[in-house]
Amino acid sequence: MAGSRRASAVARFGLALAVPGLGHFASGRWGKGALFLGAILGSFAFGWGVTGGEAVSFRRHPLVLTAQGGAAGPTALALYLSRSRPQEKWIDALLEMRAISPEEADRIPRGVSRSDAWDHLRRKTGVPDSFLEAAYWESSRRAEPRMDIGVLYTMIAGLLNLLVAADAAQGAESRTGNR
């Protein structure tokens, strides 16, 4: 009996890490599950959205991912979506620096990673790496005020979800006093 309770607690913890609130749903605590699902996913989505999808990044914020990873499912989804979307901001910075023409910008493949787009620019236009790096950091500098708040919101969501997952692991047994 104790072994099945432990397995059930581990399962609820894993469910809660994957999707905030799911561990509570699994233990029949629907109100708490709905509250945590809305609050944590809302916080994470706000943080990710306000930064244009750049708050969750291996390259820009490798240490921050440890906190964001507390919400494993949303973090994994954000990493996947960020990887596959075009990097419009640095293309705009390249245009403003007059490193590329609007026609060249239109020819950059959309929906590819930044490194694939950079390879395209190097081959087709001869834009030097120094311009590409400068444009990337210029676009990052402009986004910095939003970046700070977005990273903070996604980190809070991840850390809060660790507490929520621990609560979900205790499950319905803790309500009746059985441990």
- Computed over alpha carbons, the radius of gyration is 21 Å
What is the element string, with H for helices and E for strands? HHHHHHHHHH
Percentage beta strand: under 5%
The unreliable regions are: none
What are the main properties of this structure?
10 helices; single chain; 0% strand; 179 residues; mainly alpha
Structure description:
By secondary structure, this protein is mainly α. It has one domain. Helix content is 74%, strand content 0%.
Short account of what is shown:
This protein has 179 residues and is mainly α. It is built from ten helices and no strands.
Topology:
Elements: H1 2-18, H2 22-26, H3 30-50, H4 64-68, H5 72-84, H6 88-96, H7 102-106, H8 114-125, H9 129-170, H10 173-176
Helix pairs in contact: 1-9, 3-9, 6-9
